[in-house]
Amino acid sequence: MYGWIWRHLPGPTWVRVVTTVALAAVVVAVLFSWVFPALAPLMPFNQLTVGE
Amino acid sequence: MTVRKGLAVATGVLGELLITAGVVLGLFVVWQLWWTDVVAERAQVTMLAELGWAAPVPAPDDVPDDGIALPQDGEPPVVDRPGPAETFASMIVPRFGADYERTVSEGVTRSGTLDDPGIGWYPHPALPGELGNFAVAGHRVTFGKPFNLIAELEVDDPIIVRTPEVWYVYRVTEHHIVLPGEVSVVAPVPGDPDAEPTEHFVTLTSCHPMFSLRERYIVHGVMDYWAWTADGVPAELAGGA
Fold first, then answer.
1. CATH number of B48-237
2. Is ipTM strictly over 0.90?
């Protein structure tokens, strides 16, 4: 899977490395900004209010 | 041969997916334990600045004796009812640190209030100045952890609520650990849902044990006095407590 992506990235090796780092950064940013904040309230820890 | 090759490819992809899942879980831990604090503390600085109130807590040296806001007689002014997620006060707790000040906003939903700025006000109990129970919730870990040191509070410790015009100075009376369904702790008279309030209470709720949903850590306090912010700072914040 990652090998397939690597083979399909254009350019010489150093360009592919830069592209890979950029793609990874985008994935982490999406996870940190949207995915994790949406999941956090569903996690079985960190509940702090009282109520039914 | 082709079957075996197909199997090898499938196994490889499965392995990569599992490794990816592991990395994502690791990233979630990093996000939860570290990044939420970074974001919340940054947001908190902005929110405190946006309140536009005078310098939060002057250092003891800067405050001459006449800069003390003296306790006022009579019933305290009541805070205007805030709109959804509106920030209407700040809370200062010397036990939590010399420069501890956090904003208090309407509501206790995770996405609306608690996961960004920190302290949320239970909309039904009283507002500062009203007879009854001014009840708030805050994270004990992560998301800026405003109530990280809640278990350090001792009886008689001041909990100070600040609004543009008024200081409300509460004193801790007790703490206890309850189950999450124990809503009587936010009743107008804490622990006695049917009673008619004759005092001004404050209640802090947070998680207990840390990182758990099993129980809640509760701190109760009662108002000691109120004062005008125009008169200065409460003695508790001037180093004379």
1. 2.40.260.10
2. no
